[in-house]
Amino acid sequence: MTRTNKLFAIIIMGVAIFSSCQKLDIKPPNVLSDDQLFSNEAGIETYLAQVYRKLPIEDFTYRPGGRGSDGGFNLHHEWEHFYHAGGACGEMVGPYGGMDIGGGFAYWPYADIRDVNYFMETLPKYAKNFAGNTVNELIGEAHFLRAYYYFSLAKRYGGVPIIKNVQNYPQQSIEDLQVHRDKEEDLWNFIGDDLDSAWNAMPETNETGRANKYAAAALKSRAMLYAGSIAKFGSVNYVDGDARAQGYVGITADKAAGFFQKAIDAAKLLDGKYSLYRKNANKLTNYTDLFLDVQSPENILTRDYYGGEPERMHSWDATMSPNSGMNYMTGDGLSRCYPTLELVERYNVLDVTNPDGTPRRYDNLSDLWQGSDLEPRLLATIYFPGETLRGKLFDIRRGIYPNFSGTAAAEVAKTTRSFVPSGDHTTTYPGDPSMTIIGNAGMYPSSGSDDNTRTGFYVRKYINYKETDIKKIGLFSSTTHWIELRYAEVLLNRAEADIETGQLDDALVCLNDIRDRAGAPALTLADMTEDVVRNERCKELAFENHYWWDIKRWRIADVLLNNARFHALMPYYIHDEQKYIFLKEPESFQRNYNFDKKFYYEPLPGGELNKNPNLYPNNPNY
Amino acid sequence: MKLSISTIFLGASMLIAGSSCIKKDNYPGPNASLQGNIFQDGTGSKNTVQTCSGNFSIRLEQLDWSSTPTPQDIPVKYDGTYENSELFAGHYRVSIKGGAFWPVAPQEMDIRMGSTLDFQLTPYLTLSNFTADMVDSTTMSLHFDMQAPIDAGVPTVLEMQPFVNTTSIVGPGASIFDFSDANKKSINKEWADMTAGDKSPTIVIPNLIKGRTFFVRVGVRFNNDDKSYNLSEIIQVDVPK
Q: What is the model's pTM?
């Protein structure tokens, strides 16, 4: 090696050695720092967009039993919207084999709550970057978001640890971080307090998809109603256990009235600020459009769906109407969840039988509802046989009887029936090539698929009938917004709490406002009972992911779902008479739905119990 | 590049050195077992404690490692026995989970290979003098009496129903809906408020299928934590052709 080469080698080595003195602790360029995020409103919007995206809103894409290990909220590429909570508890019948959602999916969003706590602690340090009252308003919004997370925990588990500050590891020891559960009552009060802080600080208006102060009041009316019901009904119908004895689940009955009053007071804050949607004089059209019109004065908080880049679309339209395996009403997808006769008859009892017990004869399917006095809200919520969507008829038949005699009851009780069924939409009735057996939207035999209705009905709420091009109704093509908080619910929260506390005059005003918009006859003071207000709620909020939580907080799920089977309205054609009949009978799969009393609370996630033994005792009977 | 023998040695020795970092699992496998019987207290009978519902089980909690262990449940079989032959030896708390029986205190025991533990349980109600008769070609009439071994504190009596199946494995969760649940009768009374007639009821099952053999029992359900049943013995009924 020459001298020059040696020198060169030494220089290279020196450079290499000293370059290691450079700090490797450089900020990654693809992660936004606090200095960037909290420097202006655009940064704040980025931060909050993440929080809103993860917010546990039970919208179209929500899966109440979870999807494998992915959980059930805000799932990526989720299209199977027929895994709907209503389809596991009798509002509908769906793909679940029974009441399969009682155990939940181990929801435990403390990482997301930490993001909110971090926001609350960090934003004031950057207060100089914001003008006027902005910081105060944003902190108020954070209180709303934190309350929303804790509400989603309280209704599932009862009392869970209330974490109000950012926790840090390893600065804090494991022992410090292994927190205990808080009592259920304390958690509901904490939610109420957070929403009060939100109400006091938040602005009157906010951009679409973000909460304003009225959203905080609306959520408070919902949460306090839940707490009141748990105190009142959970103290009568409960499962004993250590968690109950220590107050982690259950609230004493004497606290019920206080919570109910808070629900009423919160609901009254929206008086004069929001109103029911009444843009169209035709009550049926009006009720249908209420779920499609972005400009509704009833919407308090919505979650938007949109095309473009980035896009966020759902598949409600393609998974609630019959595709029939031939792109019949939709361009793609399939349906598997259908409203029950029990739900339909909450609105109107269908009179399909003559006084002598024989089934009424109808010339057309549509004679069942056309010109009838069925409630417009019912017809706007559920598609009946004989209706039309995108120019296609809901021609639903379970089969064709060559002839029919006797009563409906005797026919349904028979073990062998004489109607001709079919598993496809092309087979025609023997000797009559003009007539397919089950019609284009009809039902398959009970041994077959559930890709078409099992009950005779299809969901209409949130269906975008304005899109008439069937090819465009595919998976991930729907942009209808989800209404998370709407004024009708606030009125129902208020009326229910009114009735629970004997304030019947106020309840009557609220319920009649809703019924007038629905096209239902007005009620009187004598009607103001628990049953009436509950029934009204089930009707008005059908398919909006309320029913499951409602029958749980009323503590009636174990009675309603006592190895229950649900019913259908089955349309048949009688070939020799050329008439239709409708028979009320068990839905075609005859599934059993059974609610175990322990499901009034979900089990704490096993993984969390393993990490933190202080979370014991688990909820009763797990 | 030519692979030299020393490179191969180096690689092999690194592999050996690295593998020594892995601890050998020298804990014993699940070689212990626990089995036993559930008897109705005083009678030595297992006929009426047998259950087909999944919510009556023996709960094991291994206390060697944690005071809050994840429980494991052994279902009680329809013949009134239970068994788990793949347990880890150790110190366990054993308790009864579910069922319409007066509670018994949990026991702590060491479980080894071949451990046994029987339970003597007192039902809330015994269902005795159970008869099942065909009153016409397709209608069966069931009759039974309810007695309470302990009167005070019986949970609210919710409902009663027959359980009908085509095999002798019959009970909640193993019955034909149209003959069983369809003939459920609501009671919803406290035991103290039930009349002599309430306690000696008749249940009628219509529309049975001619020429079939059925296994029938009755159950009375309570509004306790898991809404469980006391059950009668099983009767075989041949419906004539």
A: 0.92
